[in-house]
Amino acid sequence: MRTTLTNAVIYTSDPLQPTVDTVVIEGGRFIAVGTHPIIRADDSDVVHDLGGRLVLPGLIDSHVHPTSVANSRWHVRLPWTHDVDELLDFMREYARAHPPEEVPFLYFEYYPSALFADGAPTKELLDSAVSDRPVLCQDFSEHAHWVNSRMLELMGVTASTPDPVPGLEMFARDADGEPTGHLFESVHARFLDTMYDAMGWRPDDKVTTESMSYVLDFLGRHGVTAVFEAVIVDESTVQAVAALDAAGDLHCHYEGGVRFRTSDDLPDAIATVKRYDDLYGSDRVRVRTLKLFLDGTNEVGNSAVLAPQLSSCSHGDGDGAMQMGADELTQCLLTANRADVDVHIHMVGDRAFRAGCDAVEAAKALAVDDSGAWRIQVTFAHCELVDPADMHRPAELGVLINWTTHWSGGYFGEEAIEHLGEERWNRMYAFNAMIDSGATLAYSSDVVTDYELGRANPFFGMQVAHTRVDPEYPLDADRYPGSVRPAADSVLSLERLLEGYTMGGAKQLRIDDRAGSIEVGKAANLVVLDTDLFQAPPTHISDIRPAAVMFEGSVVFGGL
């Protein structure tokens, strides 16, 4: 069937033809893109007059965690407060209302990262609220956790338990080496099977088509037609995605990443990537990416920074910690290049960013002799603090940058100031200089829990990045006029945001030959908006809703 959409303002993301008013679709692809006097609809089976509405290419969330969101729906949301006693009272009352027979393991989210600015949470404090079962509280950065004594006991964690990655993935300890109950990164994840075996219970954490659809359909209704799952937690994830695809119920392109931690486990991770892609890969489903967490977070104080951190709880020698140095990372990149597997790297500190650039530069120089050519794509995710001297390097090295747009305002508050100081805090989340130098940016939501799924709406992310104001977590207006997060000139234009949400994301997922723009021959993925993005008040961009979302020529959400 041949379908024509006409009388529209169609933003193509194609620099050779930025705006048109008519497209013709057949066989799931665009067969004509242009203006109505040139493109005639006479021989189309269906013609839709869009009444001047704005049409965008299908949007891409290029760093998100559908599995984690799907598996978090049993977690318990804490009240948002900086009063420790209020949190303890809530947990105490919740435990009283839900005995261990009903809820054997209590998982609470979130407490503010700066809640314990004058110290650190302890197991004894949490024991005072709940001691009859394991309890975990996740901090707002999602990179630190607070557990009670029972959980440490069931995990088998004692003073003699080594830290998997000292300074980064580790247990806080007292003077005698005993774990205090404060955990960094997801160190507990290494011990959860031990705990579940000891309990004779485990949560139902296998992903199903229903649980995956819950997340992917939310994204789809908001205009997302391609996703990158930053960490595939379990094989059931790709099984579910492949099952949706086989049933005709997958309405997006899906790319997944497999985590590795060191050069030692890298070969196994590559083998897993290859196996998943061989078993479950299709035109819509691909698994061809490795994921590495290079450093921690600025809010917790374990980001890798060039100048020492200012807080007493900073890690290492005050410059944070990294999973590996530039030399080991170089070798990992060469190994990935030999296997033709892309690499996606979490980094937030300026020292981690520089080490990442140095490693890519070294690996590219060695690749010709090592394997004949440099073939892989490397993406740096987050890049919250970048030294001005390094802003030009992504463009020179061909590194893609992935930024989580809804973090651009006050989502994480001022927690990082304690560790970085005001001067560095004011330089965070700045990407215009990179774009000016020629770098490709892709944008994402990085949501990991059902608690924040609403923020995965791309138009919410666009609003925050375009205004530097978070409507849900505004900064103190008395200190920051208008609640605008410094620096005000780091706002991203709508044009730059659309570029990253379309072609930037398509390049990261390596689907730019068939998606990311409205061009002849590409998949007919598009979004018809109920409000013109360019005419909407900046503070109401998040209110925009797609009237229709089309994937490969079929309307999958809404209607024309």
TrEMBL record:
<dbReference type="InterPro" id="IPR032466">
    <property type="entry name" value="Metal_Hydrolase"/>
</dbReference>
<dbReference type="Pfam" id="PF07969">
    <property type="entry name" value="Amidohydro_3"/>
</dbReference>
<dbReference type="InterPro" id="IPR013108">
    <property type="entry name" value="Amidohydro_3"/>
</dbReference>
<dbReference type="InterPro" id="IPR011059">
    <property type="entry name" value="Metal-dep_hydrolase_composite"/>
</dbReference>
<protein>
    <submittedName>
        <fullName>Amidohydrolase family protein</fullName>
    </submittedName>
</protein>
<feature type="domain" description="Amidohydrolase 3">
    <location>
        <begin position="47"/>
        <end position="557"/>
    </location>
</feature>
<dbReference type="GO" id="GO:0016810">
    <property type="term" value="F:hydrolase activity, acting on carbon-nitrogen (but not peptide) bonds"/>
</dbReference>
